[in-house]
Automatic annotation (TrEMBL):
<feature type="domain" description="ABC transmembrane type-1">
    <location>
        <begin position="19"/>
        <end position="204"/>
    </location>
</feature>
<keyword id="KW-1133">Transmembrane helix</keyword>
<comment type="similarity">
    <text>Belongs to the binding-protein-dependent transport system permease family.</text>
</comment>
<keyword id="KW-0813">Transport</keyword>
<keyword id="KW-1003">Cell membrane</keyword>
<dbReference type="GO" id="GO:0006865">
    <property type="term" value="P:amino acid transport"/>
</dbReference>
<keyword id="KW-0029">Amino-acid transport</keyword>
<dbReference type="InterPro" id="IPR035906">
    <property type="entry name" value="MetI-like_sf"/>
</dbReference>
<feature type="transmembrane region" description="Helical">
    <location>
        <begin position="55"/>
        <end position="77"/>
    </location>
</feature>
<dbReference type="Pfam" id="PF00528">
    <property type="entry name" value="BPD_transp_1"/>
</dbReference>
<protein>
    <submittedName>
        <fullName>Glutamine ABC transporter permease</fullName>
    </submittedName>
</protein>
<dbReference type="InterPro" id="IPR010065">
    <property type="entry name" value="AA_ABC_transptr_permease_3TM"/>
</dbReference>
<dbReference type="InterPro" id="IPR000515">
    <property type="entry name" value="MetI-like"/>
</dbReference>
<keyword id="KW-0812">Transmembrane</keyword>
<dbReference type="GO" id="GO:0022857">
    <property type="term" value="F:transmembrane transporter activity"/>
</dbReference>
<feature type="transmembrane region" description="Helical">
    <location>
        <begin position="20"/>
        <end position="43"/>
    </location>
</feature>
<dbReference type="InterPro" id="IPR043429">
    <property type="entry name" value="ArtM/GltK/GlnP/TcyL/YhdX-like"/>
</dbReference>
Length: 216
């Protein structure tokens, strides 16, 4: 094991470049998948005719497909019909669709957990259905969604490593290139990558705990 060689300035910079791409993809997908998941979850919760059924099919389809297949589809299948996405765009799109479907169920469950009596009280006070949803159901539901949402976001960040299959220059991709320069770099490089993933995900989990405490 060559820790000195593996942790050379050039190699560390190369790993940090990969981490930068990982974080760009992860946080872009987190923002977009949360937005998509909220929209889908609210549609399913409110049970809008036809639209709710279409949403159900979308969610069930993408929840039950392997993420790797969706990444392949975005990168290699769409160009066959004239839609060519860049590496980062393809990875973000695949993660957004897959995680958005997952998050929609978290949102729907969080909204459904709000006491029906509070909804009835809101309606009886003169609020419309949408006003009740916005002012009563969503604020309470979102607080209950924090732990599962953060767990899903942590999973999303780790799932960015699957984009190595389309040669996205993220953390695992760059680590693989460093390892390819010498077999004695394998353990030092993987240990450092593991530490980086652990640190980022641990910080996210701690943030989740703080949000839970604040909203308790």
């Amino acid at each position: 094991m060559d820790f000195v060689g593996a942790y050379s300035a050039d190699n560390l910079k190369f790993l940090l470049d990969g981490l930068y791409v990982t974080l760009i993809v992860a946080f872009s997908a987190i923002a977009l998948s949360f937005l998509l998941g909220c929209i889908l979850g609210v549609i399913r919760y409110t049970n809008i005719p036809v639209l709710s059924q279409i949403t159900f099919v979308f969610v069930e389809l993408f929840r039950n497909l392997p993420l790797l297949l969706i990444i392949f589809f975005m990168r290699f299948a769409l160009p066959e019909v004239g839609i060519k996405l860049g590496l980062i765009t393809a990875a973000v799109a695949a993660l957004t669709i897959f995680e958005g479907a997952m998050i929609s169920e978290i949102v729907r469950g969080g909204l459904s957990s709000v006491d029906k009596g509070q909804i009835e009280a809101g309606r009886s006070s003169g609020l419309t259905g949408m006003q009740t949803l916005w002012h009563i159901v969503l604020p309470q539901g979102l607080r209950r969604m924090v732990p599962p949402l953060v767990s899903q976001f942590i999973s999303l960040l780790k799932d960015t490593s699957l984009a190595v299959i389309i040669s996205l220059p993220e953390l695992m991709h760059n680590a693989g290139i460093i390892i390819g320069h010498g077999y004695n770099y394998t353990i030092p490089t993987l240990l450092l990558v593991a530490l980086i993933y652990f640190t980022v995900n641990y910080l996210l989990s701690r943030l989740s705990k703080r949000l839970e405490t604040k909203n308790a």
